[in-house]
Amino acid sequence: MKTTKFLGLPLLIFVYLVVSVPFQSCEPDDEINECDTCSMVYKPNIYIYPEEQMELSVRLKFPLGGKIVTSIPEYGNGWNINVDTSGVIDNAYSFLFYESKQPDVWQRNYGWEVEADQLDAFFRHNMKDYGFNSAEIQDFIDYWIPRLNSYQVYSICPQTKDIIKRVIQIEFSKQPENVLRLFYVIKGSNQFQDNLTEPAIDEFRRDGYFVTEWGVILE
Percentage of residues in the chain with pLDDT exceeding 90? Predict the structure, then answer.
């Protein structure tokens, strides 16, 4: 009997730990400040370039949990839009905008460290290398450069399509031939950390019906 009691205590502790330790996920109905393991993605812009004018449905999926926090135009149950060959959406928008909360799966081993006064030039060059055009890059510059002014140095870690789709998937009623997705994890500091390996950049072909997207995780 004593042996049975001795074995039962560790078992109870194990069960308690399994039940009580939270998993790395976000429930879709979590409030924005209630998820310790989740991160915000700020201002992803989705640019759509069909070869001919089309009616299109676009849905965002969060396979590990998460939710849209804000969107333009209003997301509702998904975007149902008309897009012309220049990328103009519903005769009003240049891109689909959203911000979302989802689990933090972002890599922080590969990237660059850039002095604050070099950020404009860095992003223009880096985003062009990834495959963004001048208008898409200018949208990024106009929004983010004025906001990145609190530190002397910024670490910039790119998150490409294979990483992003683990937590945010985009479904199109008509699938694009090519999709470019790039988020940056950006963290400020007042000195160089020298802890990042420079990544290789794959070529993106802006051919046929294609989609591009950029966004930021700000730390």
Answer: 83
